[in-house]
């Protein structure tokens, strides 16, 4: 049975595509002989694997967690070679870490980066008889300090805060037949202050006189359309939403097209490429966007020009049978629905750029997301270069998702271990802060989540020092630390200052972005949490105690609780690893709802 057959790119949809997930041939190449021995032409791989699940996972059918730095895949498929000028594109959602792809024995693409998609035009490499083969070599050295690996453990079985590795293909593989004259990409930027939508489109094979038609609809009602002429391979235009009578009251409610967790209004848009010579439609793409604005002002976060208190939960994005890969599309939806049922309005995806299908459900269901890429374990020029390249591809992939409101390029000084006083590493985080703003003006950037921050839009603090009970002095100190701005900024819970040397608080919103972590074991398996609870009653009492300290703060403008689910040896989730609530979600929601989301903190 082939899993993960849903369309993998929900914001750029074409009707004709072929899913290449399912059973592939597979082999370990522990001696790294494959390239010298031309394994791209080999036909006797000794294993079978279910793509897109990494060989370390149960769903892969292999479930081997031992280290193998080089692996190979092979798949045969039927694809006719177009004789009408069309092209066949081969797509990979993500391959961890460095992939070399061969079609019929010839290399078609080489990609570095474990979190982002890549593709190749394989038309010239196809056999005329329609029988095709794909071979993929993956290189994923576990101890290479240049490579962003995030939570993947480099030293044997998972332990502490580190989890099982992921090597190889872990998102969908697919191909599509497209016209040589087609749409390659559309970047959609919304401006709710002026009521405008800007489109930046890129095409392929365009000639002067070719057209692009667009049709915008809201709740299935047409609201705007137009036709433009390609003068080059790029087109830029704006649509006035006010002129098209979409904004009516100026207030955010269900009748307005603004996107928020409370009202996740999405706007559909369809694109057609028209041949200027004969008027044929050569390409059709369906997409969507959300009218959304996020900004900071007066020490608060504003969503759509209204103060907005963020109630986030830390989400590691692991599943017991699939590891980094969800077992099915419904798993993404279920995680969001469970989180919202407990009173959270978003998540911080921790050390992982999630599958676009998760972001689709976040857009559709109304769930804000902080996007955080996996960190490198050390600071080197090559590590910085690799991370910068991945972030460019991340923004390219995810720019149009309204659910993403914040980018987090660094966490707890991972990859920049001497940032407290090292000016070079401080410059690095400043460079990422400005670079992300330069290629994406629509989102906030948190420079180094947790401590030792430099330039940043949010002051994000980690603090687990809330003690085991309300009776201890540690808890009283915790409440005092959270109570006001001075306590938060001057009394960090660790030996690391809130800001790096030479930097200081500049009035940005303060959020408590890691805390909690109550270890409540319902599985009987050994594990750990930052505190522990023996039963459901104690768990809820402890959760209420910790949240009472957070909600009593006069300075916090949001939080991110650790964490949504148990993960392997960590049992500090609100849900078990297999997504079973540890207590009634309504009980958690009742505690979370003690703070009104639109309360303004002075």
From TrEMBL:
GO molecular function annotation: beta-glucuronidase activity
Boundaries of every Glycoside hydrolase family 2 immunoglobulin-like beta-sandwich domain copy: 182-292
Stretches assigned to the Glycosyl hydrolases family 2 sugar binding domain: 19-154
Alphabetical UniProt keywords: Glycosidase, Hydrolase
Q: What Gene3D superfamilies does the database record attribute to this sequence? A: Galactose-binding domain-like (2.60.120.260), Glycosidases (3.20.20.80)
Q: Where is the Glycoside hydrolase family 2 catalytic domain?
A: 326-589
Q: EC annotation?
A: 3.2.1.31
**Annotated InterPro entries:** Beta-gal/glucu_dom_sf, Galactose-bd-like_sf, GH, GH2_Domain-Containing, Glyco_hydro_2_cat, Glyco_hydro_2_N, Ig-like_GH2
The UniProt record lists the keyword Hydrolase? yes
- The lineage's top-level taxon is Bacteria
Q: Which family does it belong to?
A: Belongs to the glycosyl hydrolase 2 family.
**UniProt-recorded name of the protein:** Glycoside hydrolase family 2
In the record, what lineage is assigned to the organism producing the protein? Bacteria, Bacillati, Actinomycetota, Actinomycetes, Bifidobacteriales
